[in-house]
Design goal:
- By secondary structure, the chain is an alpha/beta fold.
- The protein folds into four domains: 121 residues, 3-Layer(aba) Sandwich (Cobalt-precorrin-4 Transmethylase, domain 1); 128 residues, Tetrapyrrole methylase, C-terminal domain (Methyltransferase, Cobalt-precorrin-4 Transmethylase, Domain 2), CATH 3.30.950; 112 residues, Rossmann fold (3-Layer(aba) Sandwich), CATH 3.40.50; 127 residues, Rossmann fold (3-Layer(aba) Sandwich).
- Helix content is 34%, strand content 20%.
- The chain has 20 helices and 22 strands.
- The chain has a five-stranded parallel beta sheet with strand order 3-2-6-1-7, sandwiched between helices. A five-stranded mixed beta sheet has the order 8-9-12-10-11, with helices on both faces. Strands 14-13-20-21-22 form a five-stranded parallel beta sheet, sandwiched between helices.
- α3 crosses α4, α14 runs parallel beside α16 and α18 runs parallel beside α19.
- It is elongated.
Length: 510
């Protein structure tokens, strides 16, 4: 067997970083988007999975302390097998593959099997974890070196390989990874070996993510402080004078939504922008898509409508999804946007208008409020400018579940309205993130709804709204649907857009 046996197939050992998707390397993201097969661990953010191609094979081999989905030797064999089946196999690991990540073992196994592989380094939690908590591992005038060690060793080892005496005697900052299960014993062993018990120490759980929690104490009192705070793995332990800088340098705790757990129920492909805005403000975002976008029931009718679209006086778009799917089909038939003809454009919502602008198209009619009734009112207000809609041919691009307001009201005004049903909204049945269980077990501070569909399908999940949890709605139609289930939103967006909804959430929590 040699490297050519796999015809150029390659396995990429990628470090996902400490957990925050924005800390993934550009090379890592590029390869995830190209992956034909993904082999991934438990500590990987579910956001990474949203970057995959729809047909990418996903294989979970998650490992946590005391709970291994697959032994390391089997993972090694699996990677060799995947290399024979897929051109691009990504092995995604938390942190850096070579920093207590067993990436070296996987690389050696691939090399032995003559499989081509590449390593893409990631930001290790040994540095990112303390840094995210306001603790620099080195600082001028305090320390100029740091030591990293693991608090977890294989159960098959007859004796510990940790140089406890050497670690205790080391100068500067000390960082322990994977040590929560034996935290008390390890700290006691360090003190017996000469580590000063009064030295500042900290534990940072879920470091560099919105779920981050931390406690600061001393080496002698840290185990009790951690137990009192209820912190557990995954966490980083830091020992050294630099811990005293945490209060001054912890920027994350100053964010307006820090410590707030917020549920986003949008479709998986649309959740990104909303989630990013909330996460940037410090929120712990649970993406729990309750709906997904599917092809329309009558694909032939949709295709024929797109082909005929250049012959209409007006094209009306109800949503960004409609715009995306319309133009995906349009450019499968036509090569030039100018073949759209001279139709005027109407859109509901700034998001829909923004999607049209990506194709170089500006809207002629857009209401200030993103609801169908306001679009009709806007047509009436601009009747003199456009000569009214009577006898105009109009193609309305929308979902199968759209309300009939636009069609019925324009027909009353003697317009000739045809429908282009571009997609269907169906229940999301896959919870790749496990966030449904997180919501059930951990609760949330806020659940957000951005359409009536998200409300109805969330209620179908039969997940109780946690006690004390608030509800946010993007607008009156969504709020009315919430009312059908006996729920009253605590927050309602003023302008029915994602930026406006985020602004309302921040205002409420501030």
């Amino acid at each position: 067997m040699n490297q050519n046996d796999y015809n150029g197939n390659c396995v990429y050992l990628i470090g996902a970083g400490p957990g925050e998707p924005g800390l993934m390397t550009l090379r890592g993201k590029e390869l995830l988007e190209q992956a034909d097969c993904l082999v991934y661990d438990a500590l990987v953010s579910p956001t990474f999975l949203s970057w995959l191609k729809p047909d990418c094979k996903k294989i979970y081999v998650g490992k946590r302390a005391g709970n291994h989905a697959m032994p390391q030797e089997e993972i090694n064999r699996l990677l060799v097998e995947c290399a024979g089946k897929y051109a691009c196999t990504v092995r995604l690991k938390g942190g850096d593959p070579y920093v207590f990540g067993r990436g070296g073992e996987e690389g050696l196994a691939l090399n032995k099997a003559h499989v081509r592989f590449e390593v893409v380094p990631g930001i290790s939690s040994a540095i990112a974890g303390p840094g995210a908590a306001g603790i620099p591992v080195t600082h001028r005038g305090i320390c100029t070196q740091f030591t990293v060690f693991t608090g977890h060793e294989g159960a098959d080892k007859a004796a510990s390989e940790l140089d406890i005496e050497g670690i205790a005697a080391a100068r500067g900052t000390k960082v322990m990874l994977m040590g929560m299960s034996r935290l008390r014993e390890t700290l006691a062993a360090l003190m017996r070996a000469g580590q000063c018990g009064a030295a500042p120490a900290a534990v940072v759980q879920w470091a560099a993510t919105a779920r981050q929690h931390q406690v600061c104490a001393t080496v002698e009192t840290l185990a009790d402080a951690v137990e009192s705070a209820g912190l557990a793995a995954p966490a980083v332990v830091v020992i050294g004078e630099v811990v005293n800088l945490a209060d001054s340098l912890n920027w994350r705790k100053k964010l307006p939504l820090a410590g707030k757990r917020i549920v986003v129920t949008r479709t998986r492909e649309q959740a990104g922008e909303f989630s990013r805005r909330l996460a940037a403000l410090g929120a712990d975002v649970l993406e729990l898509p309750t709906i997904r976008i599917a092809p329309p029931s009558d694909k032939r009718d949709f295709a024929e409508s797109v082909v005929d679209s250049p012959h209409y006086d007006w094209l009306i778009f109800s949503s960004p999804n409609g715009v995306k799917r319309f133009f995906q089909a349009f450019f499968a038939v036509y090569e030039d946007i100018r073949e759209l003809g001279g139709a005027r454009l109407a859109a509901i919502g700034s998001g829909t208008a923004a999607e049209l602008k990506k194709y170089g198209l500006m809207v002629d009619v857009m209401p200030k409020k993103a609801v169908a009734e306001e679009l009709i009112a806007e047509f009436d207000r601009k009747a003199d400018e456009f000569g009214g809609v009577a006898h105009c041919t109009m193609l309305w691009v929308h979902s199968e579940q759209s309300r009939r307001v636009i069609h019925d009201e324009l027909m009353k005004r003697h317009a000739i309205v045809d429908e282009c049903i571009a997609y269907s909204i169906v229940p999301e049945t896959e919870d790749i993130s496990g966030n449904a269980e997180r919501l059930r077990s951990e609760g949330a501070d806020l659940i957000t709804f951005t359409s009536s569909g998200t409300v109805r399908h969330f209620m179908d999940l039969q997940i109780p709204v946690p006690p004390g949890c608030r509800i946010a709605s993007i607008g009156p139609i969504t709020s009315a649907t919430l009312g059908e289930y006996g729920l009253t939103p605590d927050i309602e967006s003023a302008e029915y857009t994602i930026p406006s909804l985020v602004e309302a959430i921040v205002k409420r929590f501030s």
